[in-house]
Input
Amino acid sequence: MMRLAAVALVGILVAFPLAVLPAAPVTWLAAAALVIGSAGALILAVPLVTAAASLALVAYALALAIVRPAPDPVGAITLGAALVLLLALVHFAGRVDGAALGPSVIAVQVRQWLLVVAIGVLAAAALAGAGTALAVTLEGVTLPLVVVAATLGAVLTMAGVIALVTSSRAGR
Output
């Protein structure tokens, strides 16, 4: 059941860039993400699912860079929540593969995931509000500077996720 949920989340992630721009380069990246992510979800391999999520995110960024649509914080937050849930689900499923889990264990895990997603959504909403307030200040800033700042944020986020997954609490 968890494998099917992970494959469904991979499909949702792949749909985001295709919804923005179903053109050749985006489609190629999305197709690669779908194949790699589905394989990773079926064999519960976190590295494969992470690679697929990265490909889907790159495809989404490419589609946004080409089309340059109006900002869509809800779509971006939904994409981020799906990414977090996919990685957490595959990690959890890989750790408990073959074990009999009681409903209370699954309920506690789902509550923990929803709490993490809710905190992420609130943080993203606050950042979107702050970004809107700073839009006037950043009017003359070049795109490369904004991309560097976004990349720094992504690197720090991944460092935080890696620290959470590899913490001593995760080893229990």
Observations:
- The two ends are 24 Å apart (CA to CA).
- The chain has a mean pLDDT of 86.
- Helices lie at 2-20, 24-43, 46-67, 73-95, 103-134, 143-165.
